[in-house]
Amino acid sequence: MSKLGDKIKEIRTSNNLTLQEFADSLGYTSKSTITKIEKGNNDITFSQMIKLSQIYSIDLNELADNKIINVDLLKYSLPNLEFREINKDNFYNVCMLDVNSEDKEFVASNEMSLTKTYLFKTIGTYVLPIAIYRNRVPIGFIMITKGYIGDNIKGEYINNYCILRMMIEAKHQNKGLGKLALKQLIEIIKSISINESFIWISTEEKNSKAIHIYEDNGFKKTNDYCGEEIILKYDLSK
Ligand SMILES: CC(C)(COP(=O)(O)OP(=O)(O)OC[C@H]1O[C@@H](n2cnc3c(N)ncnc32)[C@H](O)[C@@H]1OP(=O)(O)O)[C@@H](O)C(=O)NCCC(=O)NCCS
Asked: Domain 73-235 is of which CATH architecture?
């Protein structure tokens, strides 16, 4: 049995539900799907996990075995480029990081992005905001999500990690830090991936610099769009 399978069985039995009743509550037609999930032979999608956590009031992170939140950011830090969580000590400085005026149309302010983390948490969307430091000074911001982020995104994108935000403060750009941060970020996402098949990112097609660093790090353009933005994917199966 898998750990997740064990947990799901525990939720079902503690609610005194039969396999069929439990299957019905989650919208599965057959009870055999639940048997397979409990035995660890079938995967449960992230959106089903969200549903399950909401119906049975289970913390989503607990359900996912804390695998998706316990990111040891320090492990992925380099001498000149450190990843740190956002906390009371750096929140204000991260909010103050800004891009050039001509780049503002490409990325929301960090203040707005951090506000969105609150919203995402209320709807069960996984979110990990990260501050990028250089020589102990915050110089950039990245935000990873997984789950519902808006109506214009299809199912497969909801079940895979998204790099929803990425910015390097204007005065620190063009020094190779964005590329390096992205490379390390891919390693972080790989380390927390369970059944995901890709990482995705979207950007305005005219944002040639961002597209350059994404493609340079192995992302490929798709024919899909998130609103007006083209989606690029990084294949995790390689
Ligand atoms: C996109 C961004 C994160 C890149 O970070 P950065 O630290 O400036 O990037 P780097 O210095 O690591 O790399 C820049 C690369 O782009 C190339 N580049 C610079 N200007 C470019 C342009 N106009 N078009 C294409 N490539 C460009 C550089 O030559 C370099 O590539 P190389 O190392 O292969 O020569 C940063 O510029 C930024 O914050 N931009 C504003 C916000 C934004 O657009 N975020 C992405 C939203 S999807």
From this structure: 3-Layer(aba) Sandwich (3.40)
Range of weakest confidence among 56-65, 115-124, 176-185: 56-65
pTM of the model: 0.79
Q: Whose CA is nearest to atom 8 of ligand 1?
A: 173
| Ligand 1 center from residue 174 Cα (angstroms) | 6
**Top mutation candidate among 134, 142, 174, 234 for ligand 1, by most atoms within 8 Å of CB:** 174
In the reported structure, the alpha carbon of residue 104 is separated from the centroid of ligand 1 by a whole-number distance in angstroms of 14
pLDDT single digits (tens) 92-115: 999 999 999 999 999 999 999 999
C-alpha 236/C-alpha 238 separation (Å) is: 6
> Would you state the CATH architecture of domain 3-63?
Orthogonal Bundle (1.10)
CB 157 within 8 A of CB 231: yes
- Joined tokens for residue 57: 């009031």
Identity of the residue numbered 221: K
